[in-house]
Amino acid sequence: MTYTVRPIDEWPGPQTRGRRRSPFRASWGSTASLLRRELDALQARNTVLMIAVEESDIRLDGLLRANARPRHPGVVVAFDSRYGPLKYATDTFSDWQDNVRAIALGLEALRKVDRYGITKRGEQYTGWKQLESGNGVVMSAEKAREILAGYGGWGDALKATHPDHGGDPERFQRVQQARAVLAAHEELTA
Q1: How many C-beta atoms surround the C-beta of residue 15 within 10 A?
Q2: Lowest mean pLDDT among 16-25, 46-55, 57-66, 131-140
Q3: Does residue 107 contact residue 113 with C-beta atoms inside 8 Å?
Q4: What's 65's DSSP letter?
């Protein structure tokens, strides 16, 4: 699994009050291995681990510096999968690495639904995507610019992805999200 660390631009919703110690007693290597296994099972691509750090806390190779100290322990794991773009966030525990483990264990639990034959088409992931669409935007302005530039600008992106014109609804939603991020950063006028 290759991933890139990025700062969290905006936490999706209110932060957890009264965070607690996690019940996990696992090394970072064990957590990274579990996350890798679950992301591989989802055929994940473009994996981004968002942590509450500054840009200067990220090395040139896209990984976190050893001396980085996050502002809060919340993490977001976002990736493209065979079920479309997925994003999971948590700040339940007092350590960011424990929150990554919580996401990895959650992905494992969701995969068990398929393993036991309850579903065969990834409906459990589709439900998460629908829940997330109403929450705060967690996309960097840089990623938003990249998405829109890939189509030649937001007007062309809307035309190319709009479902009424034969476009893909998931891509249309990502274009809309990118547009909202740039509008929030006052880089795009309505």
Answers
A1: 12
A2: 131-140
A3: no
A4: -
At 36-60, the pLDDT tens digits run 999 999 899 999 999 999 999 999 9
**Helix or strand (DSSP H, E) at 148:** helix 141-149
User: pTM for the full model?
Assistant: 0.65
Cα–Cα distance for residue pair 188/190, rounded to 1 Å: 7
Tokens 């965070």, residue located? 19
8 Å CB contact between 87 and 105: no
Q: Which amino acid is at 29?
A: G
User: Are 42 and 5 spatial neighbours (Cβ–Cβ below 8 Å)?
Assistant: no
pLDDT averaged over every residue in the chain: 84
For tokens 């994003």, the residue is 87
Residue type, 93: F
Please give the Cα distance from 25 to 23 (Å, whole number). Answer: 7
Contact (CB, 8 A) for 87 and 125: no
pLDDT digit string, tens, across residues 117-134? 777 667 777 655 443 434
Burial class (CB in 10 A: 0-12, 13-18, 19+), 141: middle
